[in-house]
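Progress against Task 2.4 (sequence-to-structure conversion) is shown through the following example record, which the project officer requested during the mid-term review.
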Amino acid sequence: MKLTAFFIEILPIMAFFIGYELAGLYVGAVSSVVLGAVLMGVAWYQDGRVALFPLYAVGMAAVFTLLALVMDAAIFIKI
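Structure tokens generated for the chain above:
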């Protein structure tokens, strides 16, 4: 069970690297945020609660990705 949880936790970072290699930095960042949000939704559906740290991490990643897209400044993704 713990091995499965480990692989589920690294899916967003895998999505980032795959998206980055296929289409660039912005696609990698957006795919990572979207997959992280989907996984949090699945965890909420299964457990009925959301852990605060993953919520904070996905939220901050979403904010910085949105800033990078709006301002066309990749530095917000690179930090």
